[in-house]
Amino acid sequence: MTTFGLDGLARKTGAVSRSISAENPTGEKSAGGRATEGTGAVAASRLGLGWKISPSIDIPAGETAELARIAGPGTIRHLWCTTAPHQAWRGTLLRIYWEDEAEPAVEVPLGDFFCNGWNVFSQVSSVPVAVNPNGGFNAYWPMPFRRAARITLENLSAEQMTLYYQVDYELGDVPEDATYFHAQWRRSHPVPFGEVHTLLDGVEGAGSYVGTYLAWQVNSPGWWGEGEFKFFLDGDDEFPTICGTGTEDYFGGAWNFDVPGQGYTAYTTPYLGLNQILRPDGLYLSQQRFGMYRWHVLDPIHFSADLRVTVQSLGIGPGQGNGLPHRYRPTSDDIASTALFYLDAPSSSSRPVTPDLLTLEVD
């Protein structure tokens, strides 16, 4: 297995590099660029074989495309994809299966997996996830597997979508202690008043929590991000072992993300960011909406038996700024979360019910 870090680039390894795309759907050696038909065939008709005849695939409405099927052992190193601009980012489900399991370890809307949950492009400049103009999605989470890996994309939207994609991986030994990459998507639409949004519940086994992306719609006036993140580890019941101090604090910001004179201020850094701020326009675009991420790459949250993660939908009520003490108040915001973790099992009994299109829709 390739060693991470720049020093590792200089080391000789027994790993074999492979890549799957529409130009080489099997990833086999010397099998790239051999297509004789595909989405680029008309444009390349005068150029001939090997000249971008199959750069993408079409996925009809309601159908699922298998993007990759890989025999292990190996490790997926990089995922890249793009669609027609903003096409069905929330209306498609990315799934990844390990070791021929029937249930996916990853089941997340395409846009949310890449920190773009609102069908509007947002730049992301982080270490494991990069999103670049105009809708170039990249993920560098290492994904080891032993026998088999399978990646699919289901198009739940009403229109055919065109997908360009590439799966870069290496074949080679996987360490005995390597765990499996998981990602779960959940939405509270909205959070019931006085309750919390649950990101994970009932995860059993040993592993590490490594990342959070939230697509948050504010449904009440005033400041919305007082809610604490709570991590219930290894038998925690009513009270968590890890408890944060506020939503903007968890994402590495402070004081409401509010820079005096300019208001909410976006930022994107290697491990955390408020990458998206969508403001209402007073006409058709209603509600303030945000996208934010935190990657626990340098500070993974380890668990040995079980894990539950929640965040409070909590704001500040009238009083602040008027010479009166501010008051916390529960809110009923619309929160969609993507929780990323590694687990010592290729699938998890904690997987939530697969969302339908009504749950996925941005509204």
Would you give an account of this structure?
With 363 residues, this protein is mostly beta strands. It has 2 domains: 1-178, Jelly Rolls; 180-343, Protein of unknown function DUF2961 (Jelly Rolls). The chain has 3 helices and 27 strands. The protein has helices at residues 110-113, 247-250, 357-360, and strands at residues 16-21, 57-59, 64-71, 74-83, 92-98, 106-109, 124-125, 129-132, 136-139, 143-145, 148-155, 161-171, 180-188, 196-204, 207-217, 229-233, 242-243, 258-259, 263-264, 267-268, 272-278, 289-295, 301-303, 306-312, 314-317, 327-330, 334-343. A hairpin with a 7-residue loop joins strand 5 and strand 6 (106-109). The termini are far apart.
Q: Which structural category do the helix and sheet elements fall into?
A: mainly beta
- CATH fold-level topology of the largest domain: Jelly Rolls
Uncertain ranges: none
Largest sheet: 11 strands, mixed
Average residue-wise pLDDT = 94
Q: Topology of this structure?
A:
Blueprint: E1 16-21, E2 57-59, E3 64-71, E4 74-83, E5 92-98, E6 106-109, H1 110-113, E7 124-125, E8 129-132, E9 136-139, E10 143-145, E11 148-155, E12 161-171, E13 180-188, E14 196-204, E15 207-217, E16 229-233, E17 242-243, H2 247-250, E18 258-259, E19 263-264, E20 267-268, E21 272-278, E22 289-295, E23 301-303, E24 306-312, E25 314-317, E26 327-330, E27 334-343, H3 357-360
Parallel strand pairs: 6-13
Antiparallel strand pairs: 1-12, 2-12, 3-11, 4-9, 4-10, 4-12, 5-6, 5-11, 7-8, 8-9, 13-27, 14-24, 15-22, 15-23, 15-27, 16-17, 16-24, 18-19, 20-21, 21-22, 25-26
